[in-house]
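Homework help thread (please don't just give me the answer)

Our assignment gives two proteins as sequence + structure token strings and asks us to describe the second one. The first is just a warm-up. Here they are:
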Amino acid sequence: MENQDRPVSRALARVFAFWRTDLPRPVLLLQGGFALNFFGTGLILPFEIIYLHGVRGFSTATAGLVLATVMATAAVVTLPSGALLDHFSAKRILIAGNLVNAVGYGGLAFVHRPWQGFVFSAIGGAGFGLVGTASQVLTLTLVPVEQRAASTALRRVAGNFGLGLGATFAGLIVAAAPHDLHAFQALYLFDAVTFTAFALVVLVGIPNPGVATTATASSTSKSGQGFRTVVRDRLLLALIAGNFALVMIGGAYFSNILPPFAVAHTPVGAGEIGVVVFINTFFIVVAQVPATRAVARMRRTHALAVTSAIFAVGMLGVLLATKTESAAAATTVLAGVAILIAIAECGQFIVLGPLVAELAPPHLLGRYMSLYQLSFMAGVAAGPAVGGALLATSPNAIWWSGAITMALTGAGFLRLGDRVPDPLLPTKPPPLAASDAA
């Protein structure tokens, strides 16, 4: 019996080895806090308009504007947060951002009038602007360069797992008490508690990686550089433009445009859409860490081109779902699309984030990462705007034009060629000194 158990144990060990990251304990603790933080976000994210409209009595238009204030404020704060991160440690900024978030979302539990909603949403957005960039910088600076992809992957797993778990838990509460003020207040207050708990985790358990030397930061400020230097980095701008396209079309189209399109133009309903979204989130959680090993065997430009191609195939897959005649067949096709999008997102995140950090001079890391973070926000905002306009005029054009754009984006990544630093490329030997040549 014992001998029979050994092959099973070895098989399980090989399976779990795919999820090993060998990351240091502070990084694991940081991502545990990140998962808790996103659990709190998941508690309220799917139900904010329901709360503001159905419970607080705001019009749907006003409720939408209140929520838009969060993203708008976060976008405004993101670039200044990068400048702060070049002068103060990411640990301090992350703690401060989480406490600001706690005030904003705790306050939303007690709003009675729209102006109060706008005020507390702006506070919460400011917190997100600080936390978004600071958490990325801290994730990257706690590990050596060769572990940055794994650290980024684990951060994404933690966020998606926490978000999905929180949304599921909150869904059960809202279903049991759909318009209960106290139930919604409890969700918002617990969300505030998770922000505070995350701040405590960072304060107590995470070491301070420090910042660039004061002399370097001071000279940068006095010379009037900073963001001027950042925007002169053409390689960075090319990567930012590519990331914007991937987020807008590959991410936002799937998250925001696919559900209404599928309900209107395929046999699926809301229930099947929920299954498709769950499959996407589940696959990201399962595949993100193993994908790090697969991508490590590829040149970065090739990995980004493959990522773009997978997004393009996913876009065309949506059109295939419109040719089906049963809900089961359409759901199967869209589930395949969800898996393709998940695979592409895995490659996108673990290549671009560490690459942008590698391009950044140490004293400008915060600014580089804040511009990278802003490209996500811009893509998330532009996707629904462009996709919504096409949805009203030429729905199928969303997907074939998206596929073409993704193909062009992949070609653009390939054209960057050897300009992109890559550990798989042979390093050029330093030139011989004149004395050696003599």
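The one we have to describe:
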Amino acid sequence: MRNVQPIDVAVLGIELLPALAFGLAGERVQRVIANWPRMVRVLAPGLLVIPYGVLAAWYHMLRWEWCAVYSALPVLMAWLMGKAAKADPEQRGNWRDALILLSLGLAVDLRWFDVAWPAGMRGLGNLLLVDAGLYAFLGIRCLNGAGFDFHFRWSDWKTGLRELAFFAPVVVVLGLALGFIHPHANFSGYSPTLRMLLPLGREMISWVGIFVFVAVPEELFFRAWVQNFLEKRVGRGAALVLASVLFGLSHFNKRNPAGAVFNWRYFLLATIAGIFYGRAWREQRRVPASGITHTCVDWIWYLWF
């Protein structure tokens, strides 16, 4: 693993700004965007090319094709969401929403854009797509009930940890039975005493990293967007199941055994996990709640399995 450079941290900070703005002052940001001239509202997300351009230029891998993609894609998304807001004011979801969600989902899952980024920096590419999605769905579409609000509440922790308690026995028993998980303790390099006490500093940093780069983007996509739209079409129960199946399918090509194309064990466990994450989100429609469940599951897996 290469050392983190100051430019990496700077670009990360730039990319976190839109997410922080929507997560901490979403309604205010929506009002500001709504007051812009229509052309400015549509063209503004083209500025999201800047983080890619800065990082790629620093590492001498700047390509005009990728500059075009990262300039045009957010603008196209904003334009489509402007049309969707007029065509579907009830926010039941239409083909424009589906097209954007399908495109973003496949781009991340199949790693279409990874080659544009320096080795080990895939997370920054995904975070850029999160910013584009936030601007389109929350800034332009003004999607209701997404729950992308990071003023943490006690109820977020209560709900998130409750669903973790419900899910943990299921995933441990089923994961061991399927041979998908294997118990171990990931505390190598520490003295026996420190292993007993648990190196909290490093592990808490790991928890935060999982929350920011894995749990929140996935919960935003599958719960705040996909499950949210589906609820208005097919109801709460069916939406929970469908969103969970789609979440499971997004893991079909992860950790595949040698020669396997479809990792059915991961699909099954991820689908079941999606049920509990979706339950956490829909209780009060809060991404932080499902993000806590999701993060804790991945963190425990990292530490012990």
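TA reply:
I won't write it for you, but here's a hint about the kind of observation we're looking for: Residues 190-197 have pLDDT under 50 and may be disordered.
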